[in-house]
Structures are given as structure tokens and as C-alpha cells.
Amino acid sequence: MKIGNIEIKNSAALAPMAGVADCAFRELCASYGAAYTVTEMVSSKGIHYNSKKSAELMELTDKERPSGIQIFGNEPKTMADAAVFAMQFKPDFIDINMGCPAPKISGNGAGASLMKTPKLCGEIVKEVVSAVDIPVTVKMRKGWDDDSINCLEVATIVEENGASAVALHGRTRQQYYKPPVDWDIIKEVKSHLTIPVIGNGDVNSAEKAKKLYEHTGCDMIMVGRGALGNPWLFDEINQYLKTGTIPPKPTPEEKLSVMVKQIERMCELKGEYLGIRQSRKHIVWYLKGFRGAASLRNEAGHTSSLEELYALVQKVLDMHINS
Fold it and tell me: Could you read off the pLDDT of 186-227 as tens digits, one per residue?
């Protein structure tokens, strides 16, 4: 599959997830075969006002490529300027956020709120496509609510205005992440578009990935929450789709080793103080399924140094060995 001129080799991409899909996690998922990665969403207004944080979110490494920078906002010119600014970080593509359900984003006319103004969606895509010489993709939802399911209209408009691919999450904004996810709508959009359509929503296993492919006919899939504490899911999906077999799950020791590797990288990139604090939620995700995970959750939430992380890992292993 190609997105513009970018050849995509594997079957599942890592979704952009605010506060989660940082550089360390993106690199890790790429090492397990994520087809491409996307940064956490970056505010176009933040870039306009020279926000240091916005610029930091755009930093990419060679280990996570192909990789895109996702921007959000609701002003075509500001979005185009943000895309131009992003080019200094050498992204492989620019992704436009039209799907974030968070009130602080969609409540200000950006993210999923854009689904309510299809014409504006087209104008934003047109401006961004005109401003950069790399592919532009769009991440969207099926609509704002059950009374305004218009993703086919919006997807058609963004294609007409130059988008190179559409990633569609089969839920409305009002649903957030509640079930059910609508795969039929992904199938419908795929049948009408000529650009690649990437199916997204509730893929947390290789078997589900295959079902989504078969049900929708989508060009590839996007994995978000299913990869949290579970980056090897990409390898499982790739192998299952190619061979029909799923590789063995990592052992508890391997799982904890991968967790430590990710958190050490977070500390390397952000400093130990910030890296450890931002890693706490990841620790909880990795510990899911371990004996005593509920009681360890509180301890994980108070980890404040790498030394404490190593001690926690040893405690988990001891509990596992003695169970």
C-alpha cells in the first residue's frame, strides 16, 4: 500500500494518542512492526504562538519511521502554517486531526467538532496540501453523534481536496470509546473512496485485526488502545495475516523487560523526573494480568525513580515465581 509516495510495508499502524504515543512508545511499536507511527496531536495555535511544548511534540527519530506529525485546529491558514513549521522535523506525512473527542479540543471547534462543518474540513485539507510537498492524511470519526453520521461526506470532501489517505474510527464523538464500534461504516467509506482507507476501532488482537480487514476491505488498520502495555501486538498482527499463525506471547520476564526498556528510553528523552512520572500509566498497563496487579497498581502510581521501578519489577517477578 502507498500513502502518496510512501510505501507502507506492514498491516497495522500506531494511532496518534495524546499523552501516550510519545517518542519512546512510537519507537518501541515500530520495532515490533508498526507500519507507521503518528505523533501526539500538536496545536496549530500553539505553533503560531511559539509554544515550546508544541515544538517538542514534533521531534521525530529515525527509529520510528515512517512517521507523521498530527496537527489540530480549525483555521485553514493557521493549520497550513503549522504544517510548514512541522517540515523542519522531516515528517513523512502530515496528519490532520478531525476525530479527537476531548472537550478541550472538540469544544473549541477542532478535533471531532470539524465533522459538523464538512466544507471547512475541505478548506483545511486544501490549504495544508498546498503548503507542503509531502502526503496529507486525515484521522476522523463516523460523525458527531447518531443524528449526524456524515463520515462518507467528509471523507469524500477531503479526498477531493487532496488528502492521500483517511483513517476512520467507527465511533461518533458522543460515544468517545464506548461500544459498539461500527465496522460497517468503514466498509461503506472504503467502497466509495479511491485513496487508502485505514480502519480503526477496538483492534486488540491479531484475530480482530483480520476480522476488521475481512469485514471492511480496508487497506490497512490502525491500533490505538490495544497496543498499550502490549506493543508486540503489531508483530502478532503481521505474522497472523501473513502466515495464519500467532507467535507465542512474551513471558512475564520478557514483558517486564520491554516495559523497563520503554521507560528507560522515556527517561533518556525527557529526564528521569518527568520520564518516570509520565510512565506510571504505562506501568499499570504492562502489569495487567499479573498476579497481584490490583495491589501493585497503587505502588506503580507512586513510582518516582528508575531505582523504584527496578524494585517494583523485582517484586512483581518474585510474586510471579512464588505463585
Answer: 999 999 999 999 999 999 999 999 999 999 999 999 999 999
Is residue 100 annotated as part of the catalytic site, yes or no? yes
For residue 194, what are the contacts with CB-CB under 8 A and spacing of at least 6?
159
- Dump pLDDT digits (tens) for 29-78: 999 999 999 999 999 999 999 889 899 999 999 999 999 999 999 999 99
Q: Note every long-range contact of 102-107, with CB atoms under 8 Å and residues 24 or more positions apart, other chains counting.
A: 102/18, 105/41, 105/72, 106/173
CATH of domain 2-243: 3.20.20.70
Is 178 within any annotated ligand binding site?
Answer: no
Put simply, whether the predicted model's pTM sits higher than 0.85 gets the answer yes
Active-site residue identified among 23, 29, 100, 151? 100
Is 175 annotated in a binding site? The answer is no
List the one residue out of 277, 278, 289, 287 whose CA is nearest residue 312.
287
User: In which residue ranges of the chain is CATH 3.20.20.70 found?
Assistant: 2-243
- Say whether 277 counts as a known binding-site residue: no
Consult the annotation and say whether 231 binds a ligand.
no
Q: Would you state the CATH architecture of domain 252-321?
A: Orthogonal Bundle (1.10)
